[in-house]
Each structure stands twice: as structure tokens, then as C-alpha cells.
Please model this.
Amino acid sequence: MTPRMPSSSILRGAGAAHKRARSSRAAAATASAPWVVAALVLLGTSLLVMASPARPGAPPDELAKLETHLTNIRQLTFGGENAEAYWSLDGKRLILQITKPPHECDQIYTMSADGSDLKMVSTGKGRCTCAYFFPDGKRIVYASTHLAADACPPKPDYSRGYVWGLYDSYELFSANADGTGIVRLTNHPGYDAEATIREDGRKILFTSLRNGDVDLYSMNPDGSAVKRITRQAGYDGGGFYSPDGGRIVYRASRPRTDTELADWDALLKERLVRPTTLEIQVAKADGSKARQITALRAASFAPSWFRDGKTIIFASNYLDPKGRNFDLFMIKDDGTGLERVTYNETFDGFPLFSPDGRRLVFASNRNNAAPGDTNIFVADWVP
Model:
């Protein structure tokens, strides 16, 4: 989720068509990448060799042969920037963020699981991100800047490189599923966004800058009982509860050297973050026993759980770390068994399984009608 990444909206644009013939280079890099093996050994994990080709992407006519876990892929949206589509617990509806005229930045919409009945449920003001259904399907949660201004907040200053903006004006709100009955949940200076909800509906997991660093927090559905979960320097965000609610998975950056820490602090003062190196972490729901399960030295993000609670699906530009080709990967919660899922030449991200585990929703630049379009797709999952 993003600035999920963020908030989520930044990486959606990162998937614009970027077709470059670098298959041989990527294959060679993967075959002779001792730093990957060494890093994973240090973590006490092992990376299984991917049996599939290690090139950054494949043309559309080859995707069906390579994407063996996906079948019956359906495109649900057509045009504009559509991202972070997440299921209702009954599997009948999706909630997502869309940028399309007349709005200049993201608003929140819901639609049926087949893409029909699309409705805007946010205010139409400011910028929104990271929406989620409560388990009963009657209410939703999302982040918005609409209390600060009707207009979209300014874009980040890219003279500092590729950065995300952490807008202080983001606050979290709940509302009825049709957008009425808005209730403010957070009221604190600093970024509050990237909310997801435990399946029993009793806890919200979110990202906040309220204590001077970008960390994960939990709170009750009414905004009370806020508890800090992570405390290490760096970005912790885009968290999801496991199906049983006992654990969380999230993306994290960990500046370690003096130079990295100085860069982190300088950007954070400007409410910016550089998302070029993010790894996937798992922990208990209270933040204890945190463990990094990837060491890909890339922008790995949008992790969520398989329904077994033992495997994680996420997006990464691991095979194209200086480019914009993000694919979906799966990995066991102990860091073993890394496997590539998608082979699209551009961007695939924000994967989430349906509550019955039979369908996977994701955002992609595949089949674009116009450069930069990001659309929502649903596929049947093949184990």
C-alpha cells in the first residue's frame, strides 16, 4: 500500500512501458549474484534457484506459458491510474484508488468483483490512498488530505532523486461503504495512512510519522488505543495482518551506514522518503520477533499473505533494479522458496488473494491503451 507504495500511488506510475532487451544481462546477473546468496545466508535463510527464465519480462504472447500460477486473467478497469484493489471479506466487491478526470489525483472507489458498479466513495477533494473494507462490508477506511485543502497536495521534489512524499495532511477516516457517515480516526500532526484491517475487525494496522520516524501502529476501529509496533530507523509500511491475525507482513527500509542515515534524516525533514531499497519483513502482530525474509537489494513492496498464513506474495523490481519492471513473487515466511509469478515486461504490483484463496487481484501496466495506464486484473490461482 502506499505511500504504499506508495503512498502507493508512486509505484503505479513506475510501471510505464519500458521495453528494453536485457534478458541476457539479467540472466547472467542472477546466475552470478553471490551477494544474494551471501546476504541470505547471513539472514539464516536460503534462496531456491528459480526454475523459470530470469529475464526482466516477456512479450504478451509468451505470458500464458510463463505465468503458470495464473489462469483466466480478466481486466476489470480500462484506462487511467487504478491501483491498490482490495477485497471485501465476502469476496464480492473491491475497493481501490483511481486517478481519472475530473480529479487530478487519487480518489477512492468501490466496484463489484467483475469490475461493474464502479462508484466513487471518497469526498472528491484532496488526495486519497490505501482503502480497505471492514469485515462486515458495511464500512470502509481510507486516508485523505481533504481536510487540509480541496486541491491535490504538491508533487514531491524530484530534484532529490526518486522520492515519495509523506504528506502531513494525510489523516485516516472511516465511512459507510457508500461514502456517507465519515468519521475521522486520526488527528495528529504527521503522515497517517496505509491502513488495513484485521479479519475480526478489531484492529487497524497503519503507518504513521507521529513519533518522528515512519513506523507501523495499530488502533481500535474507532481510532482509540493507538500502539506503536515498529521502532527501528527507516521506513516501515504497507502492513497486512495474517489471516489468523497473529502476525503481520510489511515492507521496510533499513539505513545502516552513516551516509544512509544522514540521507534518511535529511529527506524525512522534508517529508520525503527514497524507496529504492525495500525488503519484506514478518513479525508477530505486536511487532515482536521481527524478521527480514528477503535480501534482494531492490524495491520490494506490497506484501500480503496466502490464505495458508505461511506464504507471502509481493512485488519487486529484483530482476530490473534500476528500471521499472516490477513483477510478482512468492516466498515462504521463513525466507525460502522464492518463486517468480508474473513475467509482464512492465509493472505488476499490489497483489491480494480473495478470502477463499482462489483468485488474485493485482494492478498492472499490461494491455495498456495509453502509456502510463495502470489497470486492475483478477486471475484464478493455480497452486
